TrEMBL record:
This is Zinc finger protein ZPR1. Belongs to the ZPR1 family. One of its GO terms (molecular function) is zinc ion binding. Keywords: Metal-binding, Repeat, Zinc, Zinc-finger.
Length: 467
């Protein structure tokens, strides 16, 4: 049921009243009353003024939500609703899971409102925005579908026996999937990028699940409420009937490249950990023997979180690049590393693989990359099973101990950076421009799938003005 109010949800800044602190806090019964925001709104039952209470909070292992509760003192009408407030990711996500065992049926699945669910073997398709986002399992998705199809079947068998028989036959096919009489495939397409399927082998690679990220189309961005700056400008012109765009071009010659290299730009953002308002510093710099990059650093005054991110200042290279770094001395840990947002990380000795979107782009050292991988694996609760699972606890404990041995140089290891875009870099300890003995650099031709993920297959570089 939709919220029976006519108010507009206030912005995060107005809710906070300029107080520093996390916007979305963990659920706490003692503090919930004090943190709730009350606003007057019209009752859609008697059209008198009632009160809506808003609470911005976080559901453990899930995401940020806005809890809304409306009550009218005149007619007694009440209405409660929950709305997602999770951040839209930079890219959409496509997840393909091969379900082959009961363990696969029990995998946890996090899906957002914008997730399209498919099971091709039974021609099942659940459109995006047809159901609310939820935390469930693979079996739970099938169960919910069966419950929906079973509604009013008794009445349907009397009034429309042919349709009821067809639905019963389809429900039987879904029950066969639950009984694993045949293997099947579960596909999730989420344009918001907020869906996830549990990896029961974590932190090891999951052989039955493949996750790919894709760039949204213009129509998909608009469905999420994201618009191009030029469209916003055009909208401003139409509304104001005058030329007042939000973004204005800089006159030629007023801002030179040298000025940009020496300038540190700042813009408002939210802390990635506690979601408190903070500032991000951005600077264009050049890495010796490599190329120009944009470095962004964020420091949160509330929780002390420090992050840095790197964006390539150039285009995609003609070939992909693979770096293999042998780690067995202090010098190896101090190498400078530029990891782009298209670069995969792999440690063969641990059978550990981290996708490009996990750590984002960053400029750090080998030690910094290893520490970031370890911290993210330890802190990402949604990746793992229940903490009461002793087998998992022992496996995970052993994995972290091996990671710590690598960082303390008690165990030699190899760090592999595989970047299809060729925008990553690892410092060579050699006096020449050639790689040293512990660093192996390989250039390779990208596959069709890699070009597709980078959006290169649809690029036309010759006669592009023609249709």
């Amino acid at each position: 049921m939709a919220t029976q109010t006519t108010e507009t949800i206030p912005s995060s800044e107005s809710i906070q009243d300029e107080k520093k602190g996390p916007i979305f806090k963990e659920i706490d019964a003692d503090e919930a009353v004090n943190e709730a925001t009350e606003i007057e709104s019209a009752c859609m039952n008697c059209f008198k003024t009632g009160v809506t209470r808003l609470l911005l909070t976080k559901i453990p292992f899930f995401k940020e939500v806005v809890l809304m509760s409306f009550k009218c003192e005149f007619c007694g009408f009440e209405n409660n609703e929950i709305q997602s407030a999770s951040e839209i990711q930079k890219k959409g996500v496509h997840i393909k899971l091969e379900v082959k065992s009961s363990g696969d049926l029990n995998r946890r699945v996090v899906r957002s409102d914008y997730t399209l669910v498919k099971i091709p073997e039974v021609e099942l398709e659940i459109p995006s925005q047809s159901q609310k986002g939820e935390i469930t399992t693979v079996e739970g998705i099938i169960d919910r579908t069966i419950r929906g199809l079973s509604q009013d079947q008794d009445k349907r068998r009397i009034e429309h026996p042919d349709a009821a028989a067809a639905i019963d036959a389809y429900i039987e096919r879904l029950n066969d999937l639950k009984a694993l009489k045949t293997n099947f495939t579960l596909e999730l397409d989420d344009i918001s990028g907020n869906s996830f399927v549990e990896n029961p082998l974590a932190p090891a690679h999951d052989p039955n699940c493949k996750t790919t990220h894709f760039t949204r189309t213009k129509e998909q961005d608009e469905l999420l409420g994201l618009y191009d700056a030029n469209e916003v400008q055009e909208g401003e012109k139409k509304i104001l009937k005058e030329d007042k765009p939000l973004l204005k071009p800089i006159p030629e010659g007023e801002w030179t490249l040298e000025d940009l290299h020496g300038e540190v730009l700042q813009f408002q953002t939210l802390c990635p950990e506690c979601r408190s308002p903070c500032e991000t510093n951005m600077k264009l710099t050049k890495i010796p023997h490599f190329k120009e990059v944009v470095i962004m650093a964020t420091v949160c005054d509330v929780c002390g979180c420090k992050t840095n991110e790197v964006k390539s200042g150039g285009g995609i290279e003609d070939k992909g690049t693979r770096f293999e770094v042998r780690i067995d001395s202090k010098e190896d840990l101090t190498r400078d590393v530029l990891k782009s947002e298209t670069c995969n990380l792999l440690i063969p000795e641990l059978d550990c693989e981290v996708g490009p979107s996990a750590l984002g782009g960053r400029f750090t050292t080998v030690e910094g990359i290893l520490t970031a991988m370890k911290d993210q694996i330890e802190g990402n609760d949604v990746m793992f099973q229940d903490s009461t699972d002793e087998a998992f606890k022992n496996r995970f404990k052993g994995f972290i101990e091996k990671f710590e041995k690598i960082l303390s140089l008690e165990m030699p290891a190899t760090l592999v950076l595989d970047d299809p875009a060729g925008n990553s870099y690892v410092q060579s300890l050699s006096d020449t421009e050639e790689a040293d003995a512990k660093l192996q650099v390989t250039k390779y031709e990208r596959s069709y799938e890699q070009n597709e993920e980078l959006g290169l297959n649809d690029i036309k570089t010759e006669n592009y003005e023609e249709q």
